[in-house]
Amino acid sequence: MGITVTSIGMRGRTCVGALALVGALVVGGCGAQGLSGAMRSTPSVDQALATLASEHAQSVPDGALVTAGTLTVGINTKVETVPLYFANADGAISGLDVDLASALAEQMGLKVSFVSVSDPAAALGVTCDVVMNYSGTDAAGTVAPAGTDVTTACSYAETAPALFGKKLSGTLSGSDLTGKRVGVQAGSKSASALERTSLSLQSTGYNNLNDAFSALEGGDVDYVLCEAYPGAYLAQSHADVAMGGILGEPTPKGIAVLGTNADLRQGVSDAFSALRESGAYDLVRAHWVGSLPNLGAADQVKGVPTKGTPEAAANAAGALAGGQSASASTGTMGANEGASSAGNAGDGSTAGANAVS
């Protein structure tokens, strides 16, 4: 289990032009038909999107697009990566990826269409123009084959395990975590990342991030460690909860295009720059992840020893002498202790079946 989105509250309205219209696009199925065929929008929505797109001149030639006048956006709908992408029970899709892609299309003077993509390298230039949430692999971890000309037009998000706590100011250090209680989603990548450290703390595994954040709010744990973006999404519904830093270097997430499609690559890059300059990109981010910054080296928790280093050995010895857990792996990790798989890799990236926009 991951985030049960209903506990966070209704989040269907956004602040940027066509973004509010995206919620009207409904998924009818995710097979070979793709979302562009399965997602039926009402004529009024189609007209509104066309009107919004017409406010900007089309910035890329039709020859650079799969469908003339339309930015066809690929999303791996089989991997719900809250808050980047998720679908609710009736098929309506939401998320930062959906909103950002819609804003990009508007900026480029195009309509927008969404298709389900499982293999970015095979889909680009054939069934879609761009693929969201790409960092050399797609959301499911699918790696582009060697020699495939897939490149990133721009980076818009990052992934990294992040610590969240109450009434935090500034970035935490490793010493701040000594003797503290940390909640994680059992079996997640963040739980595995914590196990690779030798921090002297007590870790507790939870079935989902909602439970972990409830434990934080109730005082049962001092911090929650989870992927930064799902954590920031949840933190907005918990008083005084903020990010206190990340473990390790963040991995950027971007918008993939064919490297040979120079017109489209430049068009997406220019449109993204325009959204940043106008503040529209910040509005999209704020809607989904609040005040979370774009993550970088300055956000890393300093002084975190990893297993096998002299600092780790010293920490372990001191912790054992003091009766504390020597490392995260000695804490209560739950039934899936140490597991990390594509299906449960995002500690909260998998939305519940009753997710709502």
From TrEMBL:
Quote the subcellular location field of this record: Cell envelope
Record-linked SUPFAM superfamilies: Periplasmic binding protein-like II
Q: Where is the Solute-binding protein family 3/N-terminal domain?
A: 70-292
Secretion signal span: none
Major location category of this protein? other
Any one cellular-component term (Gene Ontology): cell envelope
Q: Which UniProt keywords apply?
A: Signal
Could you tell me which SMART domains the record lists for this protein?
A: PBPb
InterPro entries given in the database record: SBP_3_CS, Solute-binding_3/MltF_N
For whether the record's keyword set contains Signal, the answer is yes
Q: Looking at the record, which segments are called Disordered?
A: 315-357
Q: Which PANTHER family match?
A: ARGININE-BINDING EXTRACELLULAR PROTEIN ARTP (PTHR35936:SF17), MEMBRANE-BOUND LYTIC MUREIN TRANSGLYCOSYLASE F (PTHR35936)
State the family named in the UniProt similarity comment for this chain: Belongs to the bacterial solute-binding protein 3 family.
Q: What is the recorded name of this protein?
A: ABC transporter, substrate-binding protein, family 3
Q: From which organism does this entry originate?
A: Olsenella profusa F0195
